[in-house]
Amino acid sequence: MITSQGFGKICEFSNFTPQLQTENDVDNSKLIYLPGTNCPLKTHTSLSAFTSYRVGGEAEHYVSPYDLEALQVSIEYAKENNLAITVLGAGSNLLVSDRGIPGLVIATRHLRSKNFNPATGQLTVSAGEPIPTLAWDAAALGWEGLEWAVGIPGTVGGAVVMNAGAHSSCIADMLVSAQVLSPDGTLVTLTPEELGYTYRSSQLQGGKRIVTQATFQLQPGADPVQVTARTKEHKKHRLSTQPYSYPSCGSVFRNPKPYTAGWLIEQTGLKGYQLGGAQVAQLHANFIVNRGGAKASDIFSLIRHVQNEVQERWSIWLEPEVKMLGEFQAGC
Ligand SMILES: Cc1cc2nc3c(=O)[nH]c(=O)nc-3n(C[C@H](O)[C@H](O)[C@H](O)COP(=O)(O)OP(=O)(O)OC[C@H]3O[C@@H](n4cnc5c(N)ncnc54)[C@H](O)[C@@H]3O)c2cc1C
């Protein structure tokens, strides 16, 4: 059995170095520790560093627990202080409003542990583990099944919630079970059937439950060189077809079958169209990139513009895949 850390011991507090922000700290930010833990909770924390778009205002309160206990204390703290909870993974599918997010933002990125079990071929991982690292780790062990996921820059939790997918595979195909924390503090283990998976969607979306851990079924016993080569191929393909050099959230819109959103946007003549610092990518029209200095409102206005133009030309309303957090207003 290959284990990095058992869940519940993810945060060894003796080694604990709070990852506090530097570039985005503001003067009025304040740090306290969650009651009974060494887990820092900050106020007025800019979220732009915690989203792949590199935009967004402040979290009224922000915490990134290193273990399950601190996560549970965070939820208690929110309850006691009447704070709404918003969950963040790696922030790679999010557009956070320039006005920020009221209440308590809980980032799960520091919940780390992974366990490759050769007897079952199952990989059990904490919610904060980055998906690309898992793909490389599995490949290096000669475990097949995660090659497709190498280009998805999110966490396990975000991928389970979003039913992330690529190259005709998705999380639902390989998930054995997900461990989920309910608002009342109880841990429940759910099967893919119970999560109601459909294309880039699950019943965990918009809900109050927090994914803490997931178990995936992989296929051990392959040649690590070959699995790594396939993983590299997937990465290479994505780098050549998607704009990774500017901040983005990946695909902005869901594909309205039988079309792809990218094709519809391209055929509407919107490739390269720019509003403020936000641009419809030249390389892939379903990406909106931050060309530098974009505000969340630029990206939001461009999303609306694309939706309106595509609606007018094709009578199809593109549904966003990106999750928008906080307040947005058309034209702001
Ligand atoms: C360059 C690029 C390429 C991308 N390519 C793909 C792709 O090929 N396929 C694909 O599917 N996606 C892709 N994405 C989008 C994104 O990476 C995925 O949706 C990913 O699964 C999001 O994970 P995250 O940890 O960043 O979640 P976040 O963006 O932080 O959150 C997404 C949603 O999940 C919720 N959430 C996150 N973690 C938890 C948790 N532990 N418990 C409960 N709720 C939680 C959030 O509240 C939010 O509603 C891409 C993004 C980028 C920037």
TrEMBL record:
InterPro entries: FAD-bd_PCMH (IPR016166), FAD-bd_PCMH-like_sf (IPR036318), FAD-bd_PCMH_sub1 (IPR016167), FAD-bd_PCMH_sub2 (IPR016169), MurB (IPR003170), MurB_C (IPR011601), MurB_C_sf (IPR036635), Oxid_FAD_bind_N (IPR006094). The active site is at residues 200, 251, 321. Pfam families: FAD_binding_4 (PF01565), MurB_C (PF02873). Its cofactor is FAD. SUPFAM superfamilies: FAD-binding/transporter-associated domain-like, Uridine diphospho-N-Acetylenolpyruvylglucosamine reductase, MurB, C-terminal domain. It is found in: Cytoplasm. Residues 55-221 form the FAD-binding PCMH-type domain. GO terms for molecular function: FAD binding; UDP-N-acetylmuramate dehydrogenase activity. Pathway: Cell wall biogenesis; peptidoglycan biosynthesis. The keyword Flavoprotein applies. It catalyses: UDP-N-acetyl-alpha-D-muramate + NADP(+) = UDP-N-acetyl-3-O-(1-carboxyvinyl)-alpha-D-glucosamine + NADPH + H(+). Keywords: Cell cycle, Cell division, Cell shape, Cell wall biogenesis/degradation, Cytoplasm, FAD, Flavoprotein, NADP, Oxidoreductase, Peptidoglycan synthesis. Its EC number is 1.3.1.98. One of its GO terms (biological process) is cell division. One of its GO terms (cellular component) is cytosol. PANTHER family: UDP-N-ACETYLENOLPYRUVOYLGLUCOSAMINE REDUCTASE. Cell wall formation. Belongs to the MurB family. This is UDP-N-acetylenolpyruvoylglucosamine reductase. It comes from Dolichospermum compactum NIES-806.
